[in-house]
């Protein structure tokens, strides 16, 4: 017992070991203080800041305090920080070559935060993925897709590519493409579609629903019907509308287009022989023997 | 005119296993009390001018297809249910059936009614839910699809005579005075009414519901306007039923497009 005690006393009497332990203690206290302070800041400004600002302010406070405590710990062990400052220039050049991608991602992250094209909680669409923004980190943006997958997109990629923010504005337009047989009365179709939108309380009265003839296709008239709704219920309303349109078309007898071919023989041409055969059960190769 | 039906808001006793049935305009609501839960069933009818106002004991329909059903679990249900009346939680955009022109310097008061909501609470004051008496239709009101507010839409004839307005129990009457100070005529198609900024009053004689009066002034320049919410009840012998949900903005200049179009 006495041996252990004298060993511990020996540690405290050794100045190098004492400074080392003080440095560890400073880092430990700094780490705890950083956690407490970042949570306090979050609580103080919870109502004033959005999710993105909360995340950034929490990190600034946390890493700021951790950084300061780290510098204080280095001083405690007697390291001259000016050496680090001198080495920083060399390290920057070295890093520039060795970690180009990481550096680019970090700088891109700063641009993304500054530009505020999106923030935590928004739903964004990139060239390859659509999802909710979970966090904007040092190197990448983390997304959760609608099928509950975790996707990491490097910041650099987002800065370079086109991003669509689906959550920026409170209302969105629903565009529904339709194909109608040539025999249908377009004015009647328009009235039916307008009645469908009118009957759905989720479709906004204003901006008004919009009906347009897009094109006269080979077998059908191509139409576009657009109506507006709140962004939170976009998909739900779109599904409701599509179901309601199908029902309304059936009720009103509006025909869906089918592919048709007309064969016309020239005058004086030889008659074309058409043979109509009905498949017999015996001839059906899929029929079990 | 309003019939001599009793008021539909207040505290109503419900026996254990019993059911309170309310028909209010197009809304049909059944409030069933169980030992540890309130069982609510309701539906909105298709008749937009329904005038029904009946409250009494009843039984919940067996077939609840196309009905809304919710359950609200409590430790133990109180022996009564509280029904509070409320204005809509969003502004209301009233579209006039016919465009109204107000010549320069003229003033006109329009009367219209807006649907109310029911705030249901357990007899001990525990909030249950809020149900609109008329299924609200949503709209957007603003200069563009970026700049504006979500609101509820309603059509109105914009009566200039109060006597012509069909008074219904599930709706509150608002008087809006339009004042055109500009040198050209003011065309009004839609009016933006800040419902959350209005208080609700009940007339002592016939129990009709009213909100504060509103005054909308178009300034001499014609590009800006000012909306003022009247202080106190719109007429004598009225008692305040609910306070405004948000404090009304006073003396704020708005773009004319933010008040009416």
Description:
The complex is a heterodimer of chains A (289) and B (261). Chain A has 289 residues and is α+β, with helices and mostly antiparallel strands. Chain A folds into 3 domains: 2-79, no CATH class; 115-165, SH3 type barrels (Roll); 171-256, Alpha-Beta Plaits (2-Layer Sandwich). Chain A has 8 helices and 8 strands, in the order H-H-H-H-H-E-E-E-E-H-E-E-H-E-E-H. Chain A has helices at 2-13, 15-44, 51-76, 81-98, 100-115, 155-160, 186-199, 234-252, and strands at residues 123-125, 130-136, 140-145, 150-154, 164-165, 171-180, 210-216, 221-230. In chain A, the strands form 2 sheets. A 5-stranded antiparallel beta sheet of chain A has the order 4-3-2-1-5. A 3-stranded antiparallel beta sheet of chain A has the order 6-8-7, with helices on one face. The longest helix of chain A has 30 residues, at 15-44. Chain A starts with a helix and ends in a 37-residue tail after the last helix. In chain B, 0% of the residues lie in helices and 51% in strands. In chain B, the strands form 4 sheets. In chain B, strands 9, 14, 16, 17, 18, 19, 20 and 21 form an 8-stranded mixed beta sheet that branches. In chain B, strands 5-2-3-4-6 form a 5-stranded antiparallel beta sheet, with no helix packed on it. Chain B is an all-beta fold. Chain B is built from no helices and 21 strands. The model of chain B has no long low-confidence stretch (mean pLDDT 86). Chain B folds into 2 domains: 2-85, no CATH class; 88-115 and 136-260, no CATH class. Chain B starts with 9 loop residues before the first strand and ends in a 6-residue tail after the last strand. Classes of the chains: A alpha+beta (289), B mainly beta (261).
Topology:
The complex is a heterodimer of chains A (289) and B (261).
Chain A: H1 2-13, H2 15-44, H3 51-76, H4 81-98, H5 100-115, E1 123-125, E2 130-136, E3 140-145, E4 150-154, H6 155-160, E5 164-165, E6 171-180, H7 186-199, E7 210-216, E8 221-230, H8 234-252
Antiparallel strand pairs in A: 1-2, 1-5, 2-3, 3-4, 6-8, 7-8
Chain B: E1 10-13, E2 19-24, E3 27-33, E4 37-44, E5 53-57, E6 68-73, E7 80-86, E8 92-102, E9 107-115, E10 117-122, E11 127-132, E12 137-142, E13 148-156, E14 171-180, E15 186-193, E16 200-203, E17 209-211, E18 214-218, E19 224-229, E20 238-242, E21 253-255
């Amino acid at each position: 017992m006495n041996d252990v005690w004298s060993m511990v006393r020996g540690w405290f009497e050794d100045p190098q070991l004492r400074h080392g332990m003080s440095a560890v203690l400073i880092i430990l206290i700094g780490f705890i203080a950083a956690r407490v302070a970042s949570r306090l800041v979050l609580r103080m400004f919870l109502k004033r800041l959005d999710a993105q600002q909360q995340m950034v302010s929490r990190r600034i406070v946390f890493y700021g305090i951790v950084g300061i405590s780290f510098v204080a710990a280095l001083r405690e062990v007697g390291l001259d920080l000016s050496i680090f400052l001198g080495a920083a220039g060399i390290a920057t050049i070295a890093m520039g070559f060795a970690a180009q991608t990481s550096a680019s991602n970090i700088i891109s992250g700063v641009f993304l935060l500054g530009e505020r094209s999106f923030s935590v909680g928004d739903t964004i669409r990139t060239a390859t993925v659509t999802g909710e923004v979970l966090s904007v980190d040092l190197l990448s943006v983390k997304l959760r897709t609608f099928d509950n997958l975790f996707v990491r997109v490097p910041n650099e990629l987002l800065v370079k590519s086109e991003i669509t923010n689906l959550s920026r504005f409170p209302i969105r337009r629903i565009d529904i493409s339709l194909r109608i047989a040539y025999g249908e009365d377009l004015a009647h179709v328009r009235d039916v579609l307008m009645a469908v939108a009118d009957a759905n309380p989720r479709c906004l009265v204003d901006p008004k629903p919009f009906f347009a003839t897009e094109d006269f296709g080979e077998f059908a008239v191509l139409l576009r019907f657009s109506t507006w709704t709140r962004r939170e219920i976009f998909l739900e309303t779109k599904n409701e509308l599509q179901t309601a349109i199908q029902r309304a078309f059936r009720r009103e007898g509006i025909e869906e287009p089918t592919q048709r071919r007309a064969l016309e023989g020239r005058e004086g041409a030889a008659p074309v022989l058409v043979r109509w055969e009905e498949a017999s059960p015996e001839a059906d190769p899929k029929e079990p023997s | 005119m309003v019939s001599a039906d009793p008021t539909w808001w207040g505290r109503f006793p419900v026996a254990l296993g019993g059911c309170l049935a309310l028909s209010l305009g197009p809304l049909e609501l059944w409030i069933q009390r169980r030992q540890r839960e309130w069982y609510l069933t309701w539906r909105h009818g298709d008749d937009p001018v329904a005038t029904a106002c009946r409250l009494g004991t009843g039984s919940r329909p067996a077939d609840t297809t196309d009905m809304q059903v919710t359950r609200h679990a409590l430790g133990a249900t109180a022996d009564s249910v509280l029904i509070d009346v409320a204005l809509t939680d969003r502004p209301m955009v009233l579209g006039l059936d016919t465009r109204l022109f107000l010549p320069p310097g003229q003033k006109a008061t329009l009367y219209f009614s807006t649907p109310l909501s029911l705030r249901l609470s357990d007899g001990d004051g525990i909030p249950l839910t809020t149900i609109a008496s008329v299924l609200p239709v949503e709209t957007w009101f603003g200069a563009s699809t970026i700049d504006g507010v979500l609101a509820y839409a309603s059509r109105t004839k914009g009566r200039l005579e109060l006597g012509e307005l069909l008074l219904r129990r599930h709706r509150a009457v608002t008087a809006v005075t339009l004042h055109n100070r500009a040198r050209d005529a003011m065309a009004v198609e839609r009016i933006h009414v800040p419902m959350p900024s209005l208080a609700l009053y009940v007339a002592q004689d016939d129990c009709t519901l009213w909100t504060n009066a509103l005054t909308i002034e178009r300034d001499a320049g014609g590009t800006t306007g000012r909306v003022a919410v009247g202080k106190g009840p719109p007429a004598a012998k009225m008692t305040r039923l609910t306070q405004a949900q948000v404090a009304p903005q006073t003396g704020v200049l708005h773009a004319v497009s933010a008040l009416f179009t």
